[in-house]
Amino acid sequence: MTIDNEQLAIRRARQLPDPRVVFALAFVLSSFAVIIREDLWLMTGLMVISLLCAVCIGVDFRQMWRRLKRLFQLLLFVAILRSIFAPSGTILLELWGVQLLTVGGIQIGALVLLRLGLFITSGAMFTCYTVRRLIQGMVQIKMPYELAYMVSVGVRFIPQLAEELKDSLTALQLRGVVIEELKLKKKLSLYTYLILPVIVSSMQNAKELAMSMEMRAFRAARNRTSFYELSLKPSDIVILCGILAFTIFMGVILFIGVTIF
Amino acid sequence: MLELKNISFSYPARERRQNFSLAMEYFAPSGQCTAIMGENGSGKTTLGKLVAGLLRPDAGCVLYDGEDIATWKLGQIGKQVGYLFQEPSRQLFTPRPLEEIAFPLELRGVPKDEAEAKAIELLRQFELEHIKDSTTYTLSRGEKQRLAIAAAMIAEPRFFVLDEPTTGLDKRRRGILAETLRSLMDGGVGILLISHDSVFVDEMQADIRIMDGGRLVN
To answer: Residue B130's domain is classified under what CATH number?
Structure first.
Protein backbone atom coordinates (compact mmCIF):
# COMPACT_ATOMS: atom_id res chain seq x y z
CA MET A 1 0.00 0.00 0.00
CA THR A 2 1.46 3.39 -0.93
CA ILE A 3 1.41 6.26 1.58
CA ASP A 4 -1.48 7.93 -0.28
CA ASN A 5 -3.52 4.73 -0.21
CA GLU A 6 -2.70 4.24 3.44
CA GLN A 7 -3.83 7.78 4.28
CA LEU A 8 -6.99 7.23 2.28
CA ALA A 9 -7.67 4.02 4.22
CA ILE A 10 -7.14 5.83 7.55
CA ARG A 11 -9.43 8.68 6.44
CA ARG A 12 -12.06 6.15 5.32
CA ALA A 13 -11.85 4.32 8.67
CA ARG A 14 -12.40 7.64 10.49
CA GLN A 15 -15.52 8.32 8.43
CA LEU A 16 -17.09 5.00 9.42
CA PRO A 17 -19.31 4.86 12.49
CA ASP A 18 -17.76 3.52 15.66
CA PRO A 19 -17.71 -0.33 15.62
CA ARG A 20 -19.84 -0.33 18.78
CA VAL A 21 -22.59 1.45 16.85
CA VAL A 22 -22.48 -1.30 14.23
CA PHE A 23 -22.57 -3.97 16.96
CA ALA A 24 -25.76 -2.38 18.28
CA LEU A 25 -27.24 -2.10 14.79
CA ALA A 26 -26.42 -5.72 13.86
CA PHE A 27 -27.76 -6.93 17.21
CA VAL A 28 -31.06 -5.09 16.79
CA LEU A 29 -31.53 -6.14 13.15
CA SER A 30 -30.72 -9.81 13.71
CA SER A 31 -32.82 -9.94 16.92
CA PHE A 32 -35.87 -8.64 15.06
CA ALA A 33 -35.13 -11.11 12.25
CA VAL A 34 -35.61 -13.87 14.84
CA ILE A 35 -38.55 -12.27 16.63
CA ILE A 36 -40.66 -11.61 13.52
CA ARG A 37 -42.41 -14.91 12.83
CA GLU A 38 -45.02 -14.48 10.10
CA ASP A 39 -45.22 -10.86 9.01
CA LEU A 40 -43.66 -10.90 5.52
CA TRP A 41 -44.12 -7.16 4.97
CA LEU A 42 -42.45 -6.28 8.24
CA MET A 43 -39.56 -8.61 7.45
CA THR A 44 -39.24 -7.07 3.96
CA GLY A 45 -39.19 -3.59 5.52
CA LEU A 46 -36.49 -4.72 7.95
CA MET A 47 -34.46 -6.13 5.07
CA VAL A 48 -34.72 -2.85 3.15
CA ILE A 49 -33.55 -0.90 6.21
CA SER A 50 -30.71 -3.34 6.74
CA LEU A 51 -29.60 -3.01 3.09
CA LEU A 52 -29.74 0.79 3.32
CA CYS A 53 -27.58 0.71 6.46
CA ALA A 54 -25.09 -1.64 4.75
CA VAL A 55 -24.90 0.69 1.73
CA CYS A 56 -24.33 3.72 3.97
CA ILE A 57 -21.55 1.92 5.86
CA GLY A 58 -19.95 1.01 2.54
CA VAL A 59 -20.40 -2.76 2.23
CA ASP A 60 -19.01 -3.92 -1.12
CA PHE A 61 -21.97 -5.96 -2.40
CA ARG A 62 -20.22 -6.98 -5.62
CA GLN A 63 -17.35 -8.55 -3.68
CA MET A 64 -19.84 -10.11 -1.27
CA TRP A 65 -21.77 -11.64 -4.16
CA ARG A 66 -18.54 -13.10 -5.60
CA ARG A 67 -17.58 -14.61 -2.25
CA LEU A 68 -20.97 -15.85 -1.17
CA LYS A 69 -22.52 -16.78 -4.52
CA ARG A 70 -22.71 -20.45 -3.59
CA LEU A 71 -24.17 -19.66 -0.17
CA PHE A 72 -26.89 -17.53 -1.75
CA GLN A 73 -27.75 -20.38 -4.11
CA LEU A 74 -27.93 -22.73 -1.12
CA LEU A 75 -30.20 -20.28 0.74
CA LEU A 76 -32.50 -20.09 -2.25
CA PHE A 77 -32.60 -23.90 -2.36
CA VAL A 78 -33.44 -24.03 1.38
CA ALA A 79 -36.21 -21.44 0.86
CA ILE A 80 -37.69 -23.46 -2.02
CA LEU A 81 -37.60 -26.64 0.11
CA ARG A 82 -39.30 -24.82 2.99
CA SER A 83 -41.91 -23.56 0.56
CA ILE A 84 -42.59 -27.11 -0.73
CA PHE A 85 -42.70 -28.78 2.68
CA ALA A 86 -44.96 -26.21 4.32
CA PRO A 87 -47.89 -25.88 1.90
CA SER A 88 -50.85 -23.68 2.89
CA GLY A 89 -53.37 -21.34 1.30
CA THR A 90 -54.21 -21.17 -2.39
CA ILE A 91 -52.62 -23.94 -4.49
CA LEU A 92 -50.65 -22.61 -7.46
CA LEU A 93 -49.06 -25.86 -8.70
CA GLU A 94 -50.01 -29.44 -7.93
CA LEU A 95 -48.48 -32.60 -9.40
CA TRP A 96 -49.78 -36.13 -8.72
CA GLY A 97 -51.69 -34.86 -5.70
CA VAL A 98 -48.61 -33.20 -4.18
CA GLN A 99 -48.94 -29.47 -3.54
CA LEU A 100 -45.68 -28.11 -4.94
CA LEU A 101 -46.45 -24.41 -4.93
CA THR A 102 -48.85 -22.67 -2.57
CA VAL A 103 -49.23 -19.02 -1.61
CA GLY A 104 -48.57 -19.82 2.07
CA GLY A 105 -45.54 -21.98 1.16
CA ILE A 106 -44.05 -19.20 -0.93
CA GLN A 107 -44.55 -16.76 1.95
CA ILE A 108 -42.77 -19.10 4.36
CA GLY A 109 -39.93 -19.63 1.87
CA ALA A 110 -39.59 -15.86 1.39
CA LEU A 111 -39.53 -15.34 5.18
CA VAL A 112 -36.72 -17.89 5.54
CA LEU A 113 -34.77 -16.24 2.73
CA LEU A 114 -35.22 -12.76 4.20
CA ARG A 115 -34.30 -13.91 7.71
CA LEU A 116 -31.06 -15.53 6.55
CA GLY A 117 -30.38 -12.54 4.27
CA LEU A 118 -30.72 -10.25 7.29
CA PHE A 119 -28.14 -12.26 9.24
CA ILE A 120 -25.73 -12.07 6.31
CA THR A 121 -26.24 -8.32 5.79
CA SER A 122 -25.73 -7.69 9.51
CA GLY A 123 -22.50 -9.70 9.42
CA ALA A 124 -21.35 -8.02 6.21
CA MET A 125 -21.28 -4.63 7.96
CA PHE A 126 -18.30 -5.83 10.00
CA THR A 127 -16.28 -6.48 6.86
CA CYS A 128 -15.80 -2.70 6.50
CA TYR A 129 -13.72 -2.62 9.69
CA THR A 130 -10.22 -3.82 10.43
CA VAL A 131 -9.89 -6.71 12.89
CA ARG A 132 -8.02 -4.38 15.23
CA ARG A 133 -10.93 -1.89 15.40
CA LEU A 134 -13.46 -4.67 15.91
CA ILE A 135 -11.48 -6.17 18.79
CA GLN A 136 -11.08 -2.73 20.34
CA GLY A 137 -14.81 -2.19 20.02
CA MET A 138 -15.54 -5.50 21.75
CA VAL A 139 -13.04 -4.75 24.52
CA GLN A 140 -14.61 -1.33 25.11
CA ILE A 141 -18.06 -2.89 25.56
CA LYS A 142 -16.41 -4.84 28.39
CA MET A 143 -15.95 -8.12 26.58
CA PRO A 144 -12.81 -9.90 27.92
CA TYR A 145 -9.88 -9.35 25.52
CA GLU A 146 -9.26 -13.11 25.15
CA LEU A 147 -12.85 -13.66 24.09
CA ALA A 148 -12.77 -10.71 21.67
CA TYR A 149 -9.55 -12.02 20.15
CA MET A 150 -11.04 -15.53 19.89
CA VAL A 151 -14.03 -14.13 18.00
CA SER A 152 -11.73 -12.33 15.55
CA VAL A 153 -9.61 -15.44 15.03
CA GLY A 154 -12.77 -17.52 14.59
CA VAL A 155 -14.00 -15.17 11.88
CA ARG A 156 -10.69 -15.55 10.07
CA PHE A 157 -11.07 -19.33 10.23
CA ILE A 158 -14.31 -19.34 8.22
CA PRO A 159 -12.62 -18.57 4.86
CA GLN A 160 -9.88 -21.02 5.83
CA LEU A 161 -12.45 -23.80 6.20
CA ALA A 162 -13.77 -23.00 2.73
CA GLU A 163 -10.19 -22.90 1.40
CA GLU A 164 -9.42 -26.32 2.92
CA LEU A 165 -12.53 -27.84 1.36
CA LYS A 166 -11.58 -26.28 -1.99
CA ASP A 167 -8.05 -27.71 -1.69
CA SER A 168 -9.43 -31.18 -0.94
CA LEU A 169 -11.73 -31.03 -3.95
CA THR A 170 -8.87 -29.81 -6.16
CA ALA A 171 -6.57 -32.57 -4.93
CA LEU A 172 -9.28 -35.13 -5.60
CA GLN A 173 -9.86 -33.86 -9.12
CA LEU A 174 -6.13 -33.88 -9.80
CA ARG A 175 -6.28 -37.61 -9.17
CA GLY A 176 -8.57 -37.98 -12.14
CA VAL A 177 -11.97 -37.78 -10.45
CA VAL A 178 -14.39 -35.73 -12.57
CA ILE A 179 -16.76 -34.54 -9.84
CA GLU A 180 -19.24 -33.13 -12.36
CA GLU A 181 -19.73 -36.64 -13.78
CA LEU A 182 -20.39 -38.33 -10.43
CA LYS A 183 -23.93 -39.42 -9.62
CA LEU A 184 -25.76 -37.31 -7.03
CA LYS A 185 -25.54 -40.06 -4.38
CA LYS A 186 -21.77 -40.39 -4.82
CA LYS A 187 -21.37 -36.62 -4.89
CA LEU A 188 -23.24 -36.27 -1.59
CA SER A 189 -21.20 -39.05 0.04
CA LEU A 190 -18.03 -37.34 -1.24
CA TYR A 191 -18.91 -34.03 0.46
CA THR A 192 -19.87 -35.71 3.74
CA TYR A 193 -16.62 -37.71 3.56
CA LEU A 194 -14.51 -34.58 3.07
CA ILE A 195 -16.08 -32.42 5.76
CA LEU A 196 -14.65 -34.33 8.75
CA PRO A 197 -10.98 -34.16 7.62
CA VAL A 198 -11.43 -30.45 6.83
CA ILE A 199 -12.71 -29.81 10.36
CA VAL A 200 -9.92 -31.90 11.92
CA SER A 201 -7.34 -30.05 9.85
CA SER A 202 -8.75 -26.67 10.91
CA MET A 203 -8.69 -27.76 14.54
CA GLN A 204 -5.07 -28.73 14.14
CA ASN A 205 -4.32 -25.31 12.64
CA ALA A 206 -6.11 -23.70 15.57
CA LYS A 207 -3.98 -25.74 17.99
CA GLU A 208 -0.79 -24.65 16.24
CA LEU A 209 -1.96 -21.04 16.26
CA ALA A 210 -2.71 -21.26 20.00
CA MET A 211 0.77 -22.71 20.65
CA SER A 212 2.39 -19.98 18.60
CA MET A 213 0.42 -17.30 20.50
CA GLU A 214 1.36 -18.76 23.88
CA MET A 215 5.01 -18.80 22.83
CA ARG A 216 4.72 -15.09 22.06
CA ALA A 217 3.42 -14.51 25.60
CA PHE A 218 -0.27 -14.08 24.84
CA ARG A 219 -2.07 -13.61 28.19
CA ALA A 220 1.25 -13.22 30.01
CA ALA A 221 0.09 -9.92 31.55
CA ARG A 222 -3.28 -9.81 33.28
CA ASN A 223 -4.17 -6.26 32.34
CA ARG A 224 -3.78 -4.98 28.82
CA THR A 225 -3.63 -1.36 27.84
CA SER A 226 -4.25 -0.06 24.37
CA PHE A 227 -2.50 2.73 22.52
CA TYR A 228 -5.45 3.04 20.20
CA GLU A 229 -8.82 3.72 21.85
CA LEU A 230 -12.22 4.33 20.30
CA SER A 231 -14.30 7.35 21.22
CA LEU A 232 -17.89 8.00 20.19
CA LYS A 233 -18.32 10.98 17.84
CA PRO A 234 -21.49 13.14 17.94
CA SER A 235 -22.65 11.41 14.75
CA ASP A 236 -22.29 8.03 16.50
CA ILE A 237 -24.50 9.25 19.36
CA VAL A 238 -27.11 10.38 16.81
CA ILE A 239 -27.05 6.95 15.11
CA LEU A 240 -27.30 5.19 18.49
CA CYS A 241 -30.35 7.33 19.33
CA GLY A 242 -31.80 6.39 15.93
CA ILE A 243 -31.25 2.69 16.66
CA LEU A 244 -32.93 3.09 20.06
CA ALA A 245 -35.91 4.88 18.49
CA PHE A 246 -36.15 2.18 15.82
CA THR A 247 -36.08 -0.56 18.51
CA ILE A 248 -38.89 1.11 20.45
CA PHE A 249 -40.87 1.60 17.23
CA MET A 250 -40.49 -2.08 16.26
CA GLY A 251 -41.26 -3.16 19.83
CA VAL A 252 -44.52 -1.20 19.72
CA ILE A 253 -45.49 -2.79 16.40
CA LEU A 254 -44.61 -6.32 17.48
CA PHE A 255 -45.67 -6.44 21.10
CA ILE A 256 -48.50 -3.93 21.33
CA GLY A 257 -49.85 -4.93 17.94
CA VAL A 258 -50.03 -1.60 16.07
CA THR A 259 -50.16 -2.40 12.37
CA ILE A 260 -48.75 -0.08 9.75
CA PHE A 261 -48.68 -2.28 6.64
CA MET B 1 4.20 -33.94 -25.40
CA LEU B 2 3.31 -30.98 -23.26
CA GLU B 3 3.31 -27.69 -25.11
CA LEU B 4 2.76 -24.12 -23.94
CA LYS B 5 1.86 -21.67 -26.69
CA ASN B 6 2.45 -17.95 -26.05
CA ILE B 7 1.28 -18.23 -22.48
CA SER B 8 0.79 -15.09 -20.46
CA PHE B 9 -0.63 -14.89 -17.02
CA SER B 10 -0.82 -12.26 -14.30
CA TYR B 11 -2.11 -12.50 -10.77
CA PRO B 12 -4.76 -10.00 -9.65
CA ALA B 13 -3.17 -6.70 -8.58
CA ARG B 14 -3.98 -7.33 -4.90
CA GLU B 15 -1.81 -10.46 -4.92
CA ARG B 16 1.13 -8.33 -6.05
CA ARG B 17 3.12 -10.81 -8.06
CA GLN B 18 4.94 -10.32 -11.27
CA ASN B 19 3.48 -10.90 -14.68
CA PHE B 20 4.25 -14.21 -16.19
CA SER B 21 4.82 -14.81 -19.86
CA LEU B 22 6.21 -17.65 -21.91
CA ALA B 23 6.57 -17.84 -25.62
CA MET B 24 6.25 -21.21 -27.42
CA GLU B 25 7.76 -23.84 -25.14
CA TYR B 26 7.89 -27.60 -25.06
CA PHE B 27 8.18 -29.50 -21.84
CA ALA B 28 8.28 -33.04 -20.62
CA PRO B 29 8.44 -34.98 -23.86
CA SER B 30 7.31 -38.55 -23.20
CA GLY B 31 9.88 -40.42 -21.15
CA GLN B 32 11.95 -37.35 -20.32
CA CYS B 33 12.37 -35.06 -17.37
CA THR B 34 12.53 -31.26 -17.57
CA ALA B 35 13.71 -29.51 -14.42
CA ILE B 36 12.68 -25.93 -13.74
CA MET B 37 15.03 -24.15 -11.41
CA GLY B 38 15.27 -20.55 -10.26
CA GLU B 39 15.04 -18.23 -7.29
CA ASN B 40 12.06 -17.97 -4.96
CA GLY B 41 9.22 -16.06 -6.60
CA SER B 42 10.58 -16.54 -10.11
CA GLY B 43 7.35 -18.22 -11.27
CA LYS B 44 8.22 -21.93 -11.09
CA THR B 45 5.13 -22.92 -9.11
CA THR B 46 2.94 -20.65 -11.26
CA LEU B 47 4.23 -22.48 -14.33
CA GLY B 48 3.44 -25.82 -12.67
CA LYS B 49 -0.08 -24.69 -11.79
CA LEU B 50 -0.69 -23.46 -15.34
CA VAL B 51 0.43 -26.80 -16.69
CA ALA B 52 -1.82 -28.70 -14.26
CA GLY B 53 -4.84 -26.50 -15.06
CA LEU B 54 -5.01 -25.06 -11.54
CA LEU B 55 -4.51 -21.63 -13.05
CA ARG B 56 -5.92 -20.62 -16.41
CA PRO B 57 -3.71 -18.45 -18.66
CA ASP B 58 -4.86 -14.94 -19.63
CA ALA B 59 -3.71 -15.62 -23.16
CA GLY B 60 -2.19 -18.54 -25.04
CA CYS B 61 -2.89 -22.19 -24.43
CA VAL B 62 -1.61 -25.37 -22.83
CA LEU B 63 -1.64 -28.40 -25.12
CA TYR B 64 -1.34 -32.08 -24.27
CA ASP B 65 -0.43 -34.09 -27.34
CA GLY B 66 -1.80 -31.23 -29.43
CA GLU B 67 -5.10 -30.90 -27.53
CA ASP B 68 -5.95 -27.59 -25.83
CA ILE B 69 -6.94 -28.15 -22.19
CA ALA B 70 -8.83 -24.83 -21.90
CA THR B 71 -12.21 -26.55 -22.04
CA TRP B 72 -11.22 -29.60 -19.99
CA LYS B 73 -12.57 -30.07 -16.51
CA LEU B 74 -9.97 -30.33 -13.74
CA GLY B 75 -10.81 -34.00 -13.23
CA GLN B 76 -10.14 -34.67 -16.93
CA ILE B 77 -6.78 -32.92 -16.67
CA GLY B 78 -6.09 -35.02 -13.56
CA LYS B 79 -6.37 -38.16 -15.67
CA GLN B 80 -3.50 -36.87 -17.85
CA VAL B 81 -1.39 -34.96 -15.33
CA GLY B 82 -0.34 -35.90 -11.82
CA TYR B 83 0.42 -32.86 -9.68
CA LEU B 84 2.37 -32.75 -6.44
CA PHE B 85 1.80 -29.60 -4.38
CA GLN B 86 4.74 -27.84 -2.75
CA GLU B 87 3.06 -28.35 0.61
CA PRO B 88 1.89 -32.01 0.89
CA SER B 89 -0.71 -31.28 3.58
CA ARG B 90 -2.68 -29.33 0.98
CA GLN B 91 -3.38 -32.42 -1.03
CA LEU B 92 -3.98 -34.98 1.71
CA PHE B 93 -7.63 -35.03 2.64
CA THR B 94 -8.58 -38.37 4.14
CA PRO B 95 -8.19 -39.57 7.73
CA ARG B 96 -6.13 -42.69 6.81
CA PRO B 97 -3.21 -43.09 4.37
CA LEU B 98 -4.80 -46.17 2.78
CA GLU B 99 -7.98 -44.24 1.97
CA GLU B 100 -5.90 -41.37 0.60
CA ILE B 101 -4.96 -43.59 -2.30
CA ALA B 102 -7.91 -45.97 -2.52
CA PHE B 103 -10.77 -43.46 -2.17
CA PRO B 104 -10.25 -41.61 -5.51
CA LEU B 105 -10.03 -44.99 -7.24
CA GLU B 106 -13.31 -46.09 -5.68
CA LEU B 107 -14.93 -42.85 -6.85
CA ARG B 108 -13.72 -43.66 -10.34
CA GLY B 109 -15.58 -46.96 -10.16
CA VAL B 110 -12.77 -49.35 -9.21
CA PRO B 111 -14.07 -52.10 -6.84
CA LYS B 112 -13.03 -51.54 -3.21
CA ASP B 113 -10.84 -54.69 -2.93
CA GLU B 114 -8.97 -53.87 -6.12
CA ALA B 115 -8.52 -50.22 -5.11
CA GLU B 116 -7.13 -51.23 -1.71
CA ALA B 117 -4.78 -53.80 -3.22
CA LYS B 118 -3.38 -51.16 -5.59
CA ALA B 119 -3.09 -48.69 -2.73
CA ILE B 120 -1.18 -51.15 -0.55
CA GLU B 121 1.19 -51.89 -3.42
CA LEU B 122 1.99 -48.18 -3.79
CA LEU B 123 2.31 -47.70 -0.03
CA ARG B 124 4.77 -50.60 0.05
CA GLN B 125 6.77 -49.02 -2.77
CA PHE B 126 7.17 -45.83 -0.71
CA GLU B 127 7.73 -47.73 2.57
CA LEU B 128 4.46 -46.56 4.06
CA GLU B 129 2.64 -49.86 4.40
CA HIS B 130 3.18 -50.04 8.16
CA ILE B 131 1.30 -46.77 8.67
CA LYS B 132 -1.57 -47.47 6.28
CA ASP B 133 -4.14 -47.25 9.08
CA SER B 134 -2.52 -44.43 11.07
CA THR B 135 -4.00 -40.95 11.22
CA THR B 136 -2.84 -38.92 8.21
CA TYR B 137 -2.59 -35.66 10.21
CA THR B 138 -0.06 -37.09 12.64
CA LEU B 139 2.42 -38.28 10.00
CA SER B 140 5.85 -36.64 9.81
CA ARG B 141 6.66 -34.16 7.02
CA GLY B 142 8.63 -36.80 5.12
CA GLU B 143 5.87 -39.40 5.45
CA LYS B 144 3.29 -36.89 4.25
CA GLN B 145 5.51 -36.05 1.29
CA ARG B 146 5.90 -39.73 0.33
CA LEU B 147 2.17 -40.31 0.75
CA ALA B 148 1.38 -37.29 -1.45
CA ILE B 149 3.72 -38.59 -4.16
CA ALA B 150 2.18 -42.06 -3.97
CA ALA B 151 -1.31 -40.53 -4.14
CA ALA B 152 -0.37 -38.48 -7.21
CA MET B 153 0.77 -41.67 -8.93
CA ILE B 154 -2.38 -43.69 -8.42
CA ALA B 155 -4.20 -42.19 -11.41
CA GLU B 156 -1.33 -43.38 -13.64
CA PRO B 157 -1.07 -40.08 -15.53
CA ARG B 158 1.07 -39.54 -18.62
CA PHE B 159 2.74 -36.43 -17.19
CA PHE B 160 3.84 -35.43 -13.75
CA VAL B 161 4.32 -31.97 -12.35
CA LEU B 162 6.31 -32.36 -9.16
CA ASP B 163 6.79 -29.22 -7.10
CA GLU B 164 9.73 -29.69 -4.73
CA PRO B 165 9.25 -33.45 -4.38
CA THR B 166 12.36 -34.02 -2.25
CA THR B 167 11.47 -31.63 0.59
CA GLY B 168 11.54 -33.55 3.85
CA LEU B 169 12.95 -36.74 2.31
CA ASP B 170 16.12 -38.36 3.59
CA LYS B 171 18.89 -39.45 1.22
CA ARG B 172 17.71 -43.06 0.95
CA ARG B 173 14.07 -42.09 0.28
CA ARG B 174 15.26 -39.56 -2.31
CA GLY B 175 17.02 -42.45 -4.03
CA ILE B 176 13.84 -44.52 -3.97
CA LEU B 177 11.89 -41.60 -5.42
CA ALA B 178 14.46 -41.10 -8.21
CA GLU B 179 14.33 -44.81 -9.01
CA THR B 180 10.52 -44.82 -9.11
CA LEU B 181 10.43 -41.73 -11.34
CA ARG B 182 13.03 -43.20 -13.70
CA SER B 183 11.00 -46.40 -14.04
CA LEU B 184 7.93 -44.26 -14.86
CA MET B 185 9.98 -42.40 -17.48
CA ASP B 186 11.01 -45.73 -18.96
CA GLY B 187 7.29 -46.39 -19.36
CA GLY B 188 6.91 -43.15 -21.36
CA VAL B 189 5.79 -40.77 -18.61
CA GLY B 190 7.01 -37.16 -18.95
CA ILE B 191 8.05 -35.25 -15.85
CA LEU B 192 8.18 -31.53 -15.12
CA LEU B 193 10.32 -31.22 -12.01
CA ILE B 194 10.30 -27.97 -10.06
CA SER B 195 13.15 -28.09 -7.63
CA HIS B 196 15.98 -26.33 -5.82
CA ASP B 197 17.63 -29.70 -5.18
CA SER B 198 20.41 -29.73 -7.77
CA VAL B 199 21.69 -33.14 -6.60
CA PHE B 200 18.30 -34.71 -7.25
CA VAL B 201 17.98 -32.90 -10.58
CA ASP B 202 21.38 -34.29 -11.62
CA GLU B 203 20.32 -37.74 -10.44
CA MET B 204 17.26 -37.51 -12.69
CA GLN B 205 19.45 -36.47 -15.64
CA ALA B 206 16.92 -33.74 -16.32
CA ASP B 207 16.98 -31.09 -19.02
CA ILE B 208 17.53 -28.01 -16.84
CA ARG B 209 15.66 -24.75 -17.53
CA ILE B 210 16.17 -21.64 -15.43
CA MET B 211 13.34 -19.23 -14.60
CA ASP B 212 13.67 -15.60 -13.62
CA GLY B 213 10.94 -12.98 -13.23
CA GLY B 214 8.29 -15.18 -14.84
CA ARG B 215 10.41 -15.97 -17.90
CA LEU B 216 12.59 -18.86 -18.95
CA VAL B 217 16.08 -17.45 -19.37
CA ASN B 218 17.77 -20.36 -21.08
So the answer is: 3.40.50.300
